Amino acid sequence: MHNQDSDLAKRVIDGDKQVNMMEVAIDEACVRIIAKRQPTASDLRLVMAIIKTIAELERIGDVADKICRTALEKFSQQHQPLAGEPGIAGASYRADAA
């Protein structure tokens, strides 16, 4: 946001779609593993950790997507000075001089 890099923001938004698709694919693979192989003990804990981790990564991707969409909206808006900006600047100057 600081550099107003709209290309990077667009890449992050596009990347979120890929993250969503990967989350679904990994989740389905984990369900298949549980159903077909019936893992126990450490294997089951590993599969469950993967399911939880991928859900969190997908959520992080959603947050990044929202941040980038907001940034793109802000980048597209032109700076519009406040109506009383000269008055504010003058007041600031007078306060500094005092």
From TrEMBL:
Top-rank taxon, per record: Bacteria
| A GO BP entry | negative regulation of phosphate metabolic process
Location of the PhoU domain: 2-70
Q: Does the keyword Ribonucleoprotein apply?
A: no
Keyword line: Phosphate transport, Transport
Annotated family: Belongs to the PhoU family.
For this entry, the protein name equals Phosphate-specific transport system accessory protein PhoU
Organism whose genome encodes this protein: Raoultella planticola (Klebsiella planticola)
Q: What is the lineage of its organism?
A: Bacteria, Pseudomonadati, Pseudomonadota, Gammaproteobacteria, Enterobacterales
